[in-house]
Design goal:
This protein is mostly helical. The chain has a domain at about 10-50. About 65% of the residues lie in helices and about 0% in strands. The chain is built from three helices and no strands. Helix 2 (about 30-40) packs across helix 3.
Length: about 70
Amino acid sequence: MAPDKESSVGWGSLALINAAIAQSKQRSGVNWFLISLLIGPIATLLLVSAYRHPPSHPSSPDTRQQ
């Protein structure tokens, strides 16, 4: 493969990985995929360092007080 094709495959793979990370953090995978196509590794850094919001249901087993 030519170097330009290899880099585009790598960039696209990174965008897919970022979409999966975004979905695991309950964010829009499609939006982060598109953002990742533009800014690539910077999007990964933003996703990994972003705060994950707590569950929205106060009665979930993880948030009940005992």
